[in-house]
Amino acid sequence: MGEHGNGDPKDSGAVIKAGEGESGKYAIDNPGLPPHRPRLADESEKVAKGAERVVSVLFLLSIIGTVVFFVGYFAIGQTEGDLQLLRVQNTLLGVGVAFAMLGIGLGVVHWAKTLMPDHEMVEDRKPLRKETEREEAETIINDVLDESQIKRRPLLRNTMIGAALLAPLPFIVTLRDLDRSEDFGVERMRHSMWDEGVHLVRDPSGTRIRASDLTVGTAMHVIPENLRTISSHGERLSEKAKAVTLVMRMNPEDIETVSEGRENWSHDGIIACSKVCTHVGCPVALYERHTHHLLCPCHQSTFDAANEFKVVFGPAGRPLPQLPITVDEEGYLIARSDFTEPVGPTYWERGNTDPEGDYAS
């Protein structure tokens, strides 16, 4: 069978190992980088100027998009009650932000593909010496500036700077203007539309609810009847967000905890609480009738309806505020008062000092 007759390819001579052969280093010689193919913009200054104009136009498109956003945001102004004007404003805001971001993105991509150097290179990693670090860093920065051609092409540079400065403004203004009121704080969340004698009604029909309409195990989303008297759409949404309430009915003997002063807050096993989770304000919407637990789907905070809605699991910091309720002469459910503590996340109470002590942090 000969010298290599054992059939092992490693011993047959058919496979050249690294370090063997004529090169003495590689089984196959390093072919190196492929030859560079110059682009049209590399060979023709006219083409390069054209590419520069295209990039500048894209940056200008970004600037125009930002301007369109501000026209829709400030020129149209408040749109409450006018759905047609609201659609126009939303269109301008969306189109403006889209073009602001799209112009910058496409401009940078086209700039990199047509004007920036595209030579492939292999650079050996060298240890930096402390005495030369600053000089090398300065050299790298200068090389980047030269390769990007920012110094050579002022039109491209100026339009890019203008687009980059303006593009973030829509996001800054939008986030800053999430709430326009000057009294944004705990006092706004302390009071809602609930008051003594206000009927509990179904949402969105506004139908009043009799105690007899609720069977054991029933849970229902309700709002205050006087919410419908607010004419301003924006204000109505704001007040509704604070006043949304869950009503449920259980066997009276299943209610385990009734604190002093809360003896008349329920009616024949019917209890009510704020629907706004005390963790970060998500809507608590899941009711388990056998355990009497309410679950917030966002972060799984769990509240025990049988024990004054105290937290039994999850990150929520305090119980859900309970709404005192009773019935009127016709058997309809009504509120005895507003919530006695602020609704919503616990942080609303931080820094608050209430001389009457009607709620605690």
TrEMBL record:
Keywords: 2Fe-2S, Cell membrane, Disulfide bond, Electron transport, Iron, Iron-sulfur, Membrane, Metal-binding, Oxidoreductase, Respiratory chain, Transmembrane, Transmembrane helix, Transport
Membrane protein topology class: Multi-pass membrane protein
CDD domains assigned: Rieske
PROSITE patterns named in the record: RIESKE
Stretches assigned to the Rieske domain: 265-334
Keyword Acetylation included in the entry's annotation: no
TM spans (from-to): 54-76, 91-112
Subcellular location: Cell membrane
Gene Ontology MF, one: monooxygenase activity
Gene Ontology CC terms, in alphabetical order: plasma membrane
InterPro entries: QcrA_N (IPR045603), Rieske_2Fe-2S (IPR017941), Rieske_2Fe-2S_sf (IPR036922), Rieske_Fe-S_prot (IPR014349)
Source organism, top-level taxon: Bacteria
Pfam families on file: QcrA_N, Rieske
Function: Iron-sulfur subunit of the cytochrome bc1 complex, an essential component of the respiratory electron transport chain required for ATP synthesis. The bc1 complex catalyzes the oxidation of menaquinol and the reduction of cytochrome c in the respiratory chain. The bc1 complex operates through a Q-cycle mechanism that couples electron transfer to generation of the proton gradient that drives ATP synthesis.
Protein family membership: Belongs to the Rieske iron-sulfur protein family.
PANTHER family in the record: CYTOCHROME B-C1 COMPLEX SUBUNIT RIESKE, MITOCHONDRIAL
Protein name: Cytochrome bc1 complex Rieske iron-sulfur subunit
Organism: Nesterenkonia cremea
